[in-house]
Q: What sequence folds into this?
């Protein structure tokens, strides 16, 4: 029932038509195959790297041996030309690279970082198109008819792994956000058996360098340098659900849909490094009349085990953490129900709200009762 998000420390788009140009500070990361005024294809790919120390810290000190997975997320800024079903590929980069300080529209071009031709800066660090590091094999691809050698490189197989390729398919009306599971790659980074140079994102080979006016897909994503709330993320999810609802305590589980909830331990303001345990108090709205010597208000009730939480951005009404039967299940101890929220993945100086979902006697109830809080810089 835990979600933890990391943000990249560098990302960059590279362009076959501008082979020495750096765009390391651009607010957009993009992949495309477009046709130039000369009638030749121009290809763009982008690279994204997350810090190895932060990855190890999450796995060692937060997940602590629980079952986990991890997703690479990028959020769409604009899309065009997706007239058919196309696959986007994500691979682990095989060569160190320098972010640089350029932007796409710089005139003259900035060339102090990664580009289509070079991994370091203009004239330094030619991309190696094939080779190995230990047992890990890498390759690259370009079309000599339309581009110079380059475009990055990537590990494609290695010890115990037949292929590192991860894909997501996009169609005309599909959601264009990138959301792919990358546990195999991240596990290799964590173990040290694969060097962490980040991900490279590209169109499938059948799309890139296609010289047709009818194959010009463009996906533009917000980069880490965006001024929006949509930077790319490496999102860890793990299950640390626990419950005391066995034996006699099962008699305290609510069985009526007429209930009231209160969210306690919510001071309303948090710093980005905060971890908060929210407590969910629940009780029947209309108690059953019984004869007893103690006050009804001292009775402890629990939500059913099929209860979950979610977090929404208050302004955009978008889910930041969605309901998930594995990773946002609400736990319980002898004092009641609770769940933990890691605030690091939430953008500062914004308001958020918590939603509670529970399933009782086949009915799904969602409580959205102004459970608000704010993340502040500090």
A:
């Amino acid at each position: 029932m835990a979600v933890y998000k990391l943000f990249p420390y560098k990302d960059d788009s590279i362009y076959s038509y501008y082979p020495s140009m750096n765009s390391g500070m651009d607010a957009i990361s993009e992949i495309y195959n477009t046709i130039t005024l000369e009638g030749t294809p121009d290809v763009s790919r982008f690279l994204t790297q997350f810090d190895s120390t932060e990855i190890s810290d999450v796995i060692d000190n937060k997940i602590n041996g629980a079952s986990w997975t991890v997703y690479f997320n990028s959020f769409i800024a604009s899309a065009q030309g997706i007239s058919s079903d196309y696959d986007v590929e994500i691979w682990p980069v095989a060569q160190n690279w320098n972010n640089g300080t350029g932007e796409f529209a710089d005139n003259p071009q900035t060339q102090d970082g990664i580009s289509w031709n070079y991994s370091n800066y203009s004239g330094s660090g030619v991309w190696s198109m094939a080779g190995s590091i230990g047992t890990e094999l890498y390759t690259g691809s370009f079309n000599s008819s339309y581009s110079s050698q380059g475009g990055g490189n990537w590990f494609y197989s290695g010890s115990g792994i037949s292929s590192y390729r991860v894909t997501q398919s996009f169609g005309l009306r599909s959601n264009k956000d990138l959301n792919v599971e990358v546990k195999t790659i991240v596990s290799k980074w964590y173990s040290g058996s694969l060097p962490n140079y980040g991900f490279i994102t590209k169109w499938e080979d059948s799309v890139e360098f296609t010289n047709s006016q009818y194959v010009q897909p463009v996906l533009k994503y917000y980069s880490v340098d965006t001024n929006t709330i949509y930077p790319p993320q490496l999102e860890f999810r793990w299950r640390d659900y626990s419950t005391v609802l066995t034996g006699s305590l099962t008699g305290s589980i609510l069985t009526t849909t007429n209930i009231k909830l209160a969210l306690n331990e919510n001071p309303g303001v948090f710093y980005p490094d905060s971890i908060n345990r929210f407590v969910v108090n629940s009780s029947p709205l209309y108690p059953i009349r019984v004869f007893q010597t103690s006050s009804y208000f001292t009775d402890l009730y629990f939500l059913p085990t099929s209860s979950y939480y979610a977090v929404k951005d208050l302004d955009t009404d978008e889910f930041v953490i969605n309901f998930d039967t594995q990773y946002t299940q609400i736990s319980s101890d002898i004092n009641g129900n609770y769940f933990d929220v890691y605030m690091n993945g939430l953008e500062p100086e914004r308001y958020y709200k918590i939603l509670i979902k529970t399933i009782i006697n086949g009915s799904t109830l969602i409580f959205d009762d102004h459970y608000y809080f704010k993340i502040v810089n500090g």
The helical segments are 52-63, 183-191. The mean pLDDT is 94. The longest helix spans residues 52-63. The two ends are 26 Å apart (CA to CA).
